[in-house]
Design brief:
By secondary structure, the protein is an alpha/beta fold. The protein has a single domain, classed as 3-Layer(aba) Sandwich (Rossmann fold), CATH 3.40.50. Helix content is 45%, strand content 14%. It contains 8 helices and 7 strands. Strand 1, helix 1 and strand 2 form a beta-alpha-beta unit. Helix 4 runs parallel beside helix 5 and helix 6 packs across helix 7.
Length: 248
């Protein structure tokens, strides 16, 4: 199936490791021109090197996306270098228990990023925003209350945003990953440091395994693509059947 991503231009935050890296790699492999970022220039350079063989053109910069001025400069420069922007993938999260940091990064940071990107992607005939959420926003997670609350809030924001932008030709969707295993990630650390806990996590998933970043990237790439042209305001749960409630 041709997703129709060839030649489109995407900006992906938090895109040098885990799910973000898989998303950037997938979009580039589909022929997208991709702008990546990370707080580490070393990681940006390594990611760009890994994408050299992709058909899509890839550029990158080290920055903290919660720095609104730095993010605006990067967005403007990326749009100029790529000839515009069509797709924005919001993938940065504080991923912790600090309420202030979570609100500033996951909520206010993402809202600011969207406001910055919209004037650029709003000029595209294939404008799409995909927010990387979490099933933590759908169920109670006492250990990560601030993280789950922020994800729930952003799911509401993305739905509202989709309604406000649909007449302007901008589609807005979200993907809610379940437990995803990748090197250096949360579950990788649990697997190494607390095998008993990891075994419990495996047991609670109906598929008996954790997800792979590529499985999330596939969902994100589809929702960002022209192949999903009639889908907006949705949140796609990718969790191996872990959540059992009916979403309404």
């Amino acid at each position: 199936m041709d997703l129709g991503l060839g030649g489109l231009r995407a900006l992906v935050t938090g895109s040098t490791a885990g799910i973000g890296a898989a998303i950037a790699r997938t979009l580039a492999s589909e022929g997208c021109n991709v702008a990546i970022c990370s707080r580490s220039q070393e990681r940006v350079d390594a990611m760009l090197a890994s994408l050299e063989a992709a058909p899509g053109r890839c550029i990158g910069r080290a920055l903290d996306v919660t720095d609104a001025d730095a993010f605006e400069r990067w967005t403007t420069d990326a749009a100029a270098e790529l000839g515009g922007l069509d797709i924005f993938i919001a993938n940065v999260s504080a991923m912790g228990n600090d309420w202030r940091q979570t609100v500033e990064t996951d909520i206010m940071g993402t809202v600011s990023e969207v406001d910055t990107v919209l004037p650029h992607i709003g000029q595209s005939g294939h404008a799409a925003i995909v927010y990387v959420s979490s099933i933590a926003g759908l169920v109670g997670v006492p250990q990560l209350a601030s993280y789950g609350a922020a994800k729930a809030a952003m799911s509401h924001y993305m739905k509202s945003l989709s309604m406000g932008l649909v007449k302007k030709g901008v589609r807005v969707n979200a993907v809610a990953p379940g437990d995803i295993l990748f090197e250096g990630g949360v579950w990788d650390r649990v697997q190494k440091n607390d095998p008993q806990m990891f075994a419990k996590v495996l047991k609670r998933n109906p598929m008996g395994r954790l997800g792979d970043p590529q499985e999330i990237a596939n969902a994100v790439a589809f929702l960002a693509s022209p192949a999903a042209s009639f889908i907006t305001g949705s949140q796609l749960v990718v969790d191996g059947g872990n959540t059992t409630h009916v979403q309404i």
